[in-house]
Design brief:
Layout: H1 2-11, H2 18-48, H3 51-55, E1 64-67, H4 70-85, H5 98-104, H6 109-124, H7 137-146, H8 160-211, E2 220-225, E3 233-236, E4 241-245, H9 255-265, H10 270-283, H11 298-314, H12 321-324, H13 327-331, H14 336-343, H15 345-348, H16 354-369
Parallel strand pairs: 1-2, 2-4
Antiparallel strand pairs: 3-4
Helix pairs in contact: 4-6, 4-8, 6-8, 8-9, 8-11, 9-11, 10-16, 11-14, 14-16
């Protein structure tokens, strides 16, 4: 079709102009091979770069791909209601948003019976699997996210019982909650855009350098939901896919930027985790009575510190989530934060390598465990 149009255009050109056209076509014949040569040369040059030189190239201009999907929001809503109605233990008490609870009371009798049956199915089966760590729950999440445009989940590879429950209550959810939930999700995405425009490229570049892991070449898919897990956000890996609550207060305002890059960092910390494991073994003497016991989630402490500190460096007055929420004192009391700042921050600033920083951190944490 393009070729035919080109021919018609040439046919309409006056004879006096053909000389110019021929000259242009002759010039193009010389330029095109040159362009091809330059492209091939640039590709070969990139392939000859050392790994560390390839590692820190500019990230893709489009770092994220945001979604507000019907099925994944319904799934999380039913999961949350089932969890709220069941016995709750621990320090994380789950609730429904006030407006959502009010809407429940407005359901017609037949709607309420159908909805209660769906919640019961979740109570009996699905809430026994953690959204992140439960067997098969990550795969279910990804399938429901990918099926956002489906009318009936016909192509979604999820358990048939779960599919039946979701399809059964979909009209009720769409009628009573979806418009509001979708609006809140989209508003969260919109308020995040200026922060990404101002800070996103530098943050992704910094994280790639700090973790010595390239930022993904493809945009990271982020699914925004009204309800996530107990923490307000979680990430499944391979590929990295964060799921973030738009209504969790801790994810609002400038903190949305930190939680977005915090969750995305989960796919970049493999080298950090391996270094911590290796250095813990080195730090342990043979005597069993003197074994060093690092926290199993020390890598997560470092991740919290890194994302929060990077955002605080770019936004004056910003207080990182772990500091503001009291997470350090509540989950990781002791010298961890101070030693991470002392030993890991030089690596963040480019004054020490990752291996060097991790070795120093493990050594200092081991010393801190010894009786004084």
């Amino acid at each position: 079709m393009v070729l035919n149009t080109w021919k018609i255009t040439i046919g309409a050109i006056p004879r006096a102009s053909l000389g110019v056209l021929i000259s242009v076509r002759t010039l193009a014949a010389k330029i095109v091979p040159l362009i091809v040569f330059l492209v091939i040369s640039a590709t070969l040059y990139a392939s000859m770069l050392r790994p560390e030189e390839r590692l820190f190239q500019e990230p893709s201009p489009t770092q994220f791909e945001f979604h507000s999907g019907f099925w994944i929001n319904l799934h999380h809503f039913l999961y949350r209601e089932a969890a709220v109605e069941g016995p709750q233990t621990g320090s994380h008490m789950l609730t429904l948003n006030i407006n959502d609870g009010t809407e429940l009371n407005l359901l017609a009798a037949d709607e309420r019976a159908t909805w209660n049956a769906a919640v019961a199915a979740y109570s009996n089966t699905w809430i026994h699997g953690d959204l992140l760590f439960g067997k098969g729950m990550g795969a279910i999440k990804n399938e429901l996210e990918d099926a956002e445009a489906s009318a009936d989940l016909s192509e979604a590879q999820i358990p048939s019982e779960l599919k039946g429950v979701l399809v059964m209550v979909a009209p009720i959810y769409r009628k009573h909650w979806w418009e509001k939930h979708n609006s809140q999700n989209r508003q969260w995405i919109l308020q995040l855009q200026p922060l990404l425009e101002n800070h996103g490229a530098e943050l992704s570049k910094s994280l790639a350098k700090i973790y010595e892991t390239p930022w993904p070449h493809q945009p990271i898919r982020v699914d925004v939901v009204n309800y996530a897990n107990w923490s307000g956000a979680y990430t499944t890996l391979e590929p990295t896919r964060p799921t973030i609550s738009s209504t969790e207060p801790a994810n609002s305002g400038e903190a949305a930027l930190e939680i977005l890059f915090h969750e995305s960092s989960h796919g970049m910390v493999d080298k950090l985790m391996k270094a911590l494991t290796a250095d813990e073994k080195v730090a342990n003497p043979r005597a069993a009575s003197e074994q060093v016991q690092l926290r199993r989630d020390l890598w997560h402490e470092v991740l919290f510190y890194t994302a929060g500190e990077l955002v605080a460096e770019r936004i004056p007055g910003y207080v990182p989530y772990a500091d503001k929420s009291g997470l350090w004192k509540r989950a990781w009391p002791g010298p961890d934060r101070a030693l991470i700042e002392q030993d890991w921050k030089p690596h963040m600033d480019g004054r020490a390598g990752l291996q060097e920083a991790v070795a120093k951190l493990v050594e200092d944490l081991a010393l801190a465990q010894k009786p004084q």
